[in-house]
């Protein structure tokens, strides 16, 4: 999708008809719109969104800015309509290209001016219309039925916020506690939502077949169908409960992180909080090491458990060795070795020989003798060797088991020491006099307790899910057996099973795809952040499994809240560009005030990088503050158009100087 042109009539400060060229090329993908604060940049941003999404965007304006779309009717146009006793129109038309075809979409509202009790004019809607046209190659304009389905295929409404955004909103993505919004961005832009919807649809179909099968079933099958249906519904509810608990955990962790950061910055608690953070990091490392040791113990235990058979095995080895010494077990020379010597014509001592000489004849005779030996002797010898190897493996595993068990005990001792030290820190914090620090510490403790409670509940739900799935498997077996005698119910059971299996497989695919997408976004976010901010090398950036953007300093301490506003904005920009690349979508990137919080050095790196990561970049910039010698040097040669907005304060109207 590429934006071509925007036309506005009586929209915000744009009195009458105005047009702005948004077209771009591959060599010059940037369109720049320059204007001071209050000059109408954000109004153009709103006009693009309103033209595309109409009433959906109007709802967002109400929710996020408490503005009604009728507030955008130009005041001069409204005054003219009142003076001339007529209605007036406000409209926005966006021309765009998609997959080689040209389109334009128009939102139009007709209003009449009505004075309020104070005499101020108020716009009252009388008509509205949304139209969508395709410009055919013949030059004809073919009206298409306006449908959100059509636009969702091009630039879905639920992802537009991540391609059409302002500087303030993108800054919020990197704030502590924004994990839900970050997860939502990946969920929508990378099309994980489609998988979830497919899973929900198939689960719904499976549920419908279950209900039909239950209705058709009789006797014992009827009872099983009822229990099976109830168990499936219980499983769906438990999974939803688990998902809600995970979201609650993310929220609690975000709150705790913010509280701990505040405690770390208070004079009375900074030292104690720093000590707590260091101890918690150590404890986390030890728990990771503990899991590795436990895994090693499980691997060694299976082999070491065979120690009970080691003594009989050694006894058998001694018997076999005695037989071998007496010659009862023929000594075996590898036939492969003899064949290789004959082929190379060289003895083990290095002596070379030719075919037919004494060494050749001796080796050939030995080879034939080996071939003639009974296979039983070879089998006994193989058993002797295998028992020897097994005995050594058991001995090694037993030794490793003992060593790793000691390692685990030492680790547990160290963990107990750290836990005692943490309790001591907690006691010191509890002694704080009443005030901000004490209140923050109490709130932090409540969040830690809440995390423990949340984990307990999540574990309980997980256990219940496991038991529920076992019962479902048992019911499935009974349904199959009983259903063989009731063909219609059996047919519905099979359809239900297919639909449910498909839903379960999609759920598995979703989990794998979601994790792969998270990791891909994480890697690209790290790359882009380091490109945007040269000083970022001192930080380690991660997108954790809870979908929270994490920043750690060189000592491993959380540093997200220590980022400057500019660094936070760059982190958010890096994240947005990362999800765009992972999704492989290529929509226009429209940013209002992208450089407002950045210093000149970062201006340079960001303005140099942005044109390289999208096919169309529309930037709304403030002269001097954002459009300066640094950004101009990077963007001017990449710009198809540089438009200037001029605002007349006397009549409160904006003119567009197209460039």
The largest beta-sheet arranges its strands as 2-1-4-5-6-7
Radius of gyration: 37 Å
Q: Percent range for helical residues?
A: 55-70%
Q: What's the end-to-end separation, in Å?
A: 23 Å
CATH domain topology of the largest domain: Rossmann fold
CATH superfamily of the largest domain: P-loop containing nucleotide triphosphate hydrolases
Sheet having the most strands: 6 strands, antiparallel
The tally of beta strands, per DSSP, is 14
**Number of structural units classed as domains:** 4
For the record, the CATH architecture of the largest domain stands as 3-Layer(aba) Sandwich
Tell the overall outline.
extended
Number of DSSP helices? Answer: 17
Briefly characterize the structure.
With 659 residues, the chain is of the alpha/beta class. The chain has helices spanning 41-65, 75-83, 148-154, 167-172, 179-189, 192-216, 219-265, 270-304, 310-326, 335-344, 358-372, 375-430, 436-483, 487-532, 565-583, 600-609, 629-635; strands at residues 2-11, 14-21, 30-34, 88-98, 101-115, 121-135, 141-144, 164-166, 540-543, 549-552, 589-592, 617-621, 639-648, 653-657. Strand 11, helix 16 (600-609) and strand 12 (617-621) form a beta-alpha-beta unit.
